[in-house]
Amino acid sequence: MIIAPSVLTANLSGLAQDCQEALDAGLDWLHLDVMDGNFVPNLTFGPPVIRSLREALGPGPVFDAHLMVENAESCYQDYIDAGCNHISVHVEAVKHLHRAVTAIREGGASVGVVLNPGTSVEAALEVLPEIDLVLIMSVNPGFGGQSFIPHVENKIRRLAHAIEEQVATGGRPVQIQVDGGVKAHNIAMLRSWGVTNCVVGSGLFNDRATVSENLEIIQQALQE
Ligand code: DX5
Ligand code: ZN
After folding, report:
1. pTM beyond 0.85
2. Ligand 1 pocket: which of 3, 6, 89, 92 to mutate (most atoms <8 Å of CB)?
């Protein structure tokens, strides 16, 4: 199971420091929540901040950009040039999904598509042979610290089944990433549904404990 820390609930005035804490705890992905105040009701950061973060942290960590923006089709290359290795775009925000995922790969990044809680899994299945990851939102995007929506189980299981079939016929293995409300108490359940990659924000970055203490509790839950 890959654990991708979301920096949304980190201390954004000391972003590199908090990211470094996650890397020092043994994580090697960083989930970067890009919000444009339009597609979602919140604003975070864009390519200049990500470029500075890449300069501060070096070439090692996987920068996983979750683009919650209206214009992903016209701006994805800015994120790749700023140092993102992976780009995920919302199917609800992109007009020509097949064209967009193909272009992102040609631009030099691995590619994912994101489904909001109210979006059917079918939209992702149409491009499944072309992508590396499907991100299932288990909260409505825009804010950290929300509660997990249990109904996504059905969507995850259907997706896991479709990926199994794709792999069995020689196709590309696709990661299932879940984002929103993932904590120590539900992460083992997510794995049993077929999830391979969990975004964890407030479960790692909070006032109660350090990132490495929180990570240890999550890893214990995965061992039980
Ligand atoms: C929500 C973001 C998530 C969120 C996760 O729009 O995409 O990455 O920050 O935070 P938690 O784990 O606190 O739900
Ligand atoms: Zn996210």
Report:
1. yes
2. 6
The 10s digit of each residue's pLDDT in 117-129 is 999 999 999 999 9
Q: Residues 18, 33, 36, 64: which is the catalytic one? A: 33
Predicted pLDDT at 224: 85
Active site residue 78: no
Q: Measure 75 CA to ligand 1 centroid, in angstroms.
A: 22
Cβ-contact 30, 62 below 8 angstroms: yes
Q: How do residues 66-77 score in pLDDT, each as one tens digit? A: 999 999 999 999
**Domains defined for the chain, CATH in brackets:** 2-223 (3.20.20.70)
Question: What contacts 104, CB < 8 A, 6 or more positions away?
Answer: 76, 80, 87, 89, 111
